[in-house]
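RETRY 2/3 - previous attempt timed out on the joint model. Re-submitting the same 912-residue input unchanged.
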Amino acid sequence: MPAETREESWERLEALLAEGGTDGLRAYLGALPPGEVARALSRMAGEDRDRLLALLPPPQAAELLGALPPAQAAELLGAVPPDLAAAVLGCLPSDGRADLLGELDAGRAEAILAHLAPDVAAGVRRLAAYPPDTAGGLMSTEYLAYPVTVRLEDIIADLRGHAEQYSRYQVQYVYVTTPGDTLAGVLRLRDLLLSPPEAPVASVMVADPLRLRADAPLDEVARFFDRHPFFGAPVTDREGRLLGVVFRADAEEAVGERAERRFLLASGVLGGEEFRSMPWRLRQRRRLAWLGVSLALNLVAAGVVGLYQDTLASVIALAVFLPVISGMGGNAGNQALAVSVRELALGLIRPDEFRWVLVKEAGVGAANGLLLGAALGGLALAWSGNPYLGLIVGAAMALSSLVAVCLGGTLPLALTRLGLDPAIAAGPILTTLTDACGFFFALALASGLLRQLVLS
Amino acid sequence: MPAETREESWERLEALLAEGGTDGLRAYLGALPPGEVARALSRMAGEDRDRLLALLPPPQAAELLGALPPAQAAELLGAVPPDLAAAVLGCLPSDGRADLLGELDAGRAEAILAHLAPDVAAGVRRLAAYPPDTAGGLMSTEYLAYPVTVRLEDIIADLRGHAEQYSRYQVQYVYVTTPGDTLAGVLRLRDLLLSPPEAPVASVMVADPLRLRADAPLDEVARFFDRHPFFGAPVTDREGRLLGVVFRADAEEAVGERAERRFLLASGVLGGEEFRSMPWRLRQRRRLAWLGVSLALNLVAAGVVGLYQDTLASVIALAVFLPVISGMGGNAGNQALAVSVRELALGLIRPDEFRWVLVKEAGVGAANGLLLGAALGGLALAWSGNPYLGLIVGAAMALSSLVAVCLGGTLPLALTRLGLDPAIAAGPILTTLTDACGFFFALALASGLLRQLVLS
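RETRY 2/3 succeeded.
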C-alpha cells in the first residue's frame, strides 16, 4: 500500500521541526494543498503542533488557523501561551477573533484578552456580548464610515492615505453617518469610482439604506441576503447607530455551521465537533455522556415490554415484530421531525402552528401507517398462520406510525417555543417516545386479544 | 387565539388577486417582511400562486423567487408557462438560472430554454454541464475581463460606459487575460480606484493569480476560501482559460445546502426538500418509498430474532433487553458515523484510511461498550436475579457497541470510495446492521448458555 511507504505530511513537518529553523517549515507549509494542512496538523503530536504555531510569525500562524475547522483552531489557540495567542489573534478579522475566543473557556479567553491591545480587547468584548447566531454576533467591526458632509474626493484621499491599513478591510461599501454615528447612507465602491470626485457624498449615496438590527436572529439575516443581492449589510442598534457590517459570506457560513451542528446533534455527537485527533479520554467521555442519557431513555421504553412480559411469553412470535414496529415508528417520526426543523428554519411555519402541522401529518401518517400495517400484518399472518397476530401487528404498526409522525412533527415546534434547538429532539427523545408507543400498542392489543391469540 | 381572527398574509394576497390589478399586489408584497413572503406563498392555493407570478413584472417575479427556498422556487417556476418562466429566469444571475433549471425535469427545462435568448440559453447549458458541487457548477459567468494590454483609464471608461449593464454584476475584481482568454491577472476594484489612471493594467494587477480548476470539488473550493480571504476566485479549465468566477458566498451557501441535505438524508427525507405545502400524494409517496426500504431492512434484522424464537421463549426476560441492546448499538454507531462524515468533509481523513478509523474507534467503542455493558448487565441481574441473564445482556451490549462503532466509522469511507454521499449510511443501512448484531450477540449467547439460564 503506497500510503504506508510514502512519507506523510505530518511526518515531514515533525522532521522539519526537529531540524529547527523556520524557513524550511514555512516553505513546506506554503506548498501544502489547503486541505492537507488541516489533516497534517490534526495528526501531529500535540506538543509539536503547539511548537509549530509558536515558530511561525503571527500573520502566518493566523493564516494557518484560518485553514482549520473552528473547533480545531480554538483547540490549538488554547494550547499556546496567552501572549502568543494574542499576537496571532491580532492578525485575524474582528469577527474571527470573537468567534475563536468564544470557543475557549472563560479563564483562558481572559488570559488572552489581557495580552491584546486595550482597544482590540474592548472590541472583542463588545462583539462577544452579542449571542453568536444574531446579526450582532456575526458582524465585523472593520468598516469605513464618513460624515455625510464630505465629498467623494475626501473619501478617495483618505483611502489613498490609509491604503496599507485598509487593505485588511473588505471594502465593498463605504458607510455614511450623521453626528452620533447614526447610519445615513451607503456608498458602493463602484459609485465612488464612477462619479465625479467633487460630488458631495450625500448626492451619490443610497440614503436610508436597508439595515439589520443587532438582535436580528440568524434566520432573519439569512432571509435578508436571500432577498437582497448585497455583499454585506450594515448593523445598527435600536436607535439606528451603526455598529458593524454583516457579510453575506459570514451569514451563509453561519447557516452552514448550524446545519452541520444539527447533523451532529441528530447523530448524538454533543458538545461540539469531535475529531479523532482529539484526546482519547475526551472523545470517550463526551460520547458516553450522551449514550448514558440514551440508555436511561431506552430503559423507559423497555419498561413497557417488562410490564407485558406474561403476554409476550404467551405469544413469543410477537417478540419478532416488536423491534420492527418500534423501529418503523421511529423512522416515520424522524421524517416528520426533519420537515418541521427545515420549515422552521425557512420561516415556512411559525412555532405556534401546531394545528397546521398536525393536520398535514395526520393524513400522511395515517395513509402510510395503513399501508405499512397491512404489509407487516400480512407478513405476520403468513409467517405464523395466526390471523389475530396479523391483526395485532398490523394495527400496532398503523397506530404507532400515526402517533409517531404527529409527535415528530410537533416536538420541534414545542422545543423552539422553549428556546431550544428543534434538532435536539431528533435523537433519543423522539425515539424513546415512538419505541414506547410501538411496544404499548402491540402488547396492549395482544393482552386484550390474548385468549383468541393463544387458542387460535 | 389571535392567529385565527387576524387575516393571514396569504388570505390578503388571494383577496388582492381576486380584485385584479397588480399595483395593490406589488405594494403588499413589497411591504411583507422577507420571511413572510415564503410562508405566504407556501400556503396559497397552487393556481393562485402561479397567477401571482404571472401578474408580476419579471424582475419582481425574479426577486420573489430569490426569497424562496430553491426547491419551492423551482416548483413555482415549473408551474407557469415556459415563456413566462424564461422571462423571469432572464432576470436572475447566471448561476441562479442554471441551479433552478437543474431542479426541473429535463423536458420542462428544455421548454423554458427554448424561450431564452440563444446566447443566454447556451450559457445555461454550459454551466449545467458541470456537476453541481464543483467549482464549475458553482461559478457565475458575469465577470469583467480586459486584455492585458489596456491601461486603467480604459477600464474606467468601459465601466462608466456600461454602468447600467454592469450594475447586475458583482464587480469586486476585474480579470485580465492574454489572447485565447488565458487568465493572466486579477485587479481589485480598490487598486483600480487608488492607482494612477494612466498606469498599464499589467503593472497594477496581481499576476498569475490563485485560481480554481472547474472540476475542483466543493470541499476543495470551501478549503480555498477558508485559507484565502478573497470574495471570489477565478475558475479556469485545464489549459488556464478563464471560465467564470466562484464567489465565497456561493461556496458557503453550497456547503450549507449540503449539510442540510445530509440532515434530511440522515432523517429519512429523500428526493430533496419536503414542504407541507406540497401535494399530499407526493409527500406520502416519497416518505413511503423510504419507509418501505426501511421495513425490508428491519425485517432482515428481525429475522435474527425469528431464528432464536425457542431460546427467547425459554428466557422471556431477554425480550425486555433486546430492543435496548440493539437501540444502543445504533446510537453508538451513529456517533462514529457522524464523526467520519465530518472528518471526510473537512479533509481530516482520506477515504482509504480504514485502519486509522478502526484503531481510533475500537478504543472508544470498547471502553464505552464495557461501561454500558456493565450498567445494563447489572440492571438485568438486579431485576431478574439471574446472573447468567446479567452476563448475557452485559456481554451482548459490550460486543454490539464495539462492532457498531467500527461499522459506523468505516461505512462512510466505503460509501465515499463508491462515489456516494457518506451520510446515506446514517439511516436504515447502519441501523439494520447494528440491530442484527445486537440481536445476534444476545440470542446466540443465550442459546449457548440456555441450560444455565433456565436452571438458575
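Residues 145-246 of chain A form a domain with the CBS-domain fold (CATH 3.10.580.10). Closing ticket.
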